[in-house]
Amino acid sequence: MPSSCVSELLIEVTRGKLTECVHRGHIAVVDIQGRLLGSAGNPEFYTFARSTAKLVQAIPLLEAGGAERFTLTPEETALCCASHNGEPEHADTALAILHKLGLDESALHCGCHEPFYKPAADALKRSGQPLTQLHNNCSGKHAGMLALCACMEASIQEYTSPAHPVQQKMLHTVAEMCGVSPDSIQLGTDGCGVPVFAVPLSALALAYARLGCPDQLPERRAEACRAIVQAIRKAPYYVAGTERFDTRLVEVTQGRIIGKMGAEGVYALTVPERGIGLALKIEDGAERALYPTAVEALLQMELLSVEEAAQLAGFHQPIVPNRRDEAVGVIRPAFRLKRAE
Amino acid sequence: MPSSCVSELLIEVTRGKLTECVHRGHIAVVDIQGRLLGSAGNPEFYTFARSTAKLVQAIPLLEAGGAERFTLTPEETALCCASHNGEPEHADTALAILHKLGLDESALHCGCHEPFYKPAADALKRSGQPLTQLHNNCSGKHAGMLALCACMEASIQEYTSPAHPVQQKMLHTVAEMCGVSPDSIQLGTDGCGVPVFAVPLSALALAYARLGCPDQLPERRAEACRAIVQAIRKAPYYVAGTERFDTRLVEVTQGRIIGKMGAEGVYALTVPERGIGLALKIEDGAERALYPTAVEALLQMELLSVEEAAQLAGFHQPIVPNRRDEAVGVIRPAFRLKRAE
């Protein structure tokens, strides 16, 4: 059910006095009943949730008792939800999870890419140490999937296949949390090889509202949701890393807001105490438009204080630097959310 | 004179069966009289030409006799027009120009960034050799500007300042070639510190049509234009480098088409024998949309054969790979040019 695409101008990128580029997209803000509280563009826009689904995808592992069985630390649980920087702590923690399963790096099927965090990538190169799948930003999610294999007594072979019981469990959990039918979810393949799930933004926002405020969910699921939120509050570094927005947002709001980026311009967040979820999509996929849009939407919804926004200024209105690090422009929000009456 | 922004959907990025992202923009195709032959979106869209201006910016140096005075090779002239890869040949050639001026790398004001071509960046790191301004993709342009300082007997101090005689000459040459008044050109600052010039796309396309087919220009300018086109035909590697579209386009068409990318989603090209120029802007600045749009526009204008397009398939419809290099989607053109009757 692809939606018609009536995107709205969200972000301007200036150079000197001119707007050099624009980014369009869609925003949905909902409460735990799924009522639309705010929007831009088409809040029903149907798109892949990408890595914003990771927090939801961690639920089955906790529901299955994986945290107890493998004595997962908050750091390890947060890493299962992460698109991490590939810093040494991230790689080490992914390996620690695997060791608890009696496995090692070779069990992962996520492939390799250089650490997101450039100083970590450079340090790895200088060290002469090999780049491994542990450095893949998704290694925690994959380790969590392998842990779920153990809990479900499913084979760890082909755990990335859409037909594998673990991926079927992912699909159904995403559908339940989003309040949509599994049949309505189109699948694609992520950068790391596993299925990704397409849902309307409003449904993704609902999943995040419920994740943060799960009191109306079945008790076992509610506990899993609380454990995930709690783990990220305790160990925000492990969901992203140095200089990353997802980490800073938790730190600056002292855990009042938990957010997660996804590739190709997706963001989702929950404000647990308010029972609010937000999801957004930049239609061209640009990461540079993601955080300015998220911070601005939070401000307009009065979910973030001006003081907190000031601490996130580098994400809200980042400068455009030249190669000599002089500011030659700015990336700035240019939208006004439609608020529900 | 910013134009109203009625952009058109140009490129779709698919994942599985879904369109995950779209890129919008504008295209102008004109002849040497400036008559519009084809368009998409707003062909008068006013934006920074960025590095597409480099071929035009090389004109004053050749007009001033710089090629003879410094016995510039085709490789060196092409490098003056380049956004090069920072491969060893590029850095060496930039240094060779500087040596002919009695200068060295320290005369450049372009700043440093890692070579665009990742294997070159990695090799540099492994070698322990320092990253220098010679590796900046604009080092050839800056070396050319310093050569023009010599020809104009202007100071090499602050040659990047908008008020410097060299930058004033750049402004007036861009204005003349584009057929617009210098006053109509807004200035910004490029990544490399020098002024960039905003013009309507149709005017940028006209500059490229004239560059390739300069017979109606004053003789000295016409000779300069011919020398630039000839240098890039002879040494296409020096205008970009390994695996780069600008280089491959010249190679595949055996010099029949000369094109130049610019940052933030700008492309311009000339088809000299047809007296045609084309300029385009991706409104969100995405480089991944640039080459698919350029190849598709050339095909639709019947300026590129199907066989040539097939040799450029990796630029025309690149796959979206996952981390294991499996195709999970495709980047594909989704527009139809409006053709003049």
TrEMBL record, chains A, B:
Lineage: superkingdom: Bacteria
Pfam family, one: Asparaginase_II
InterPro entries according to UniProt: Asparaginase_II
Protein name: Asparaginase
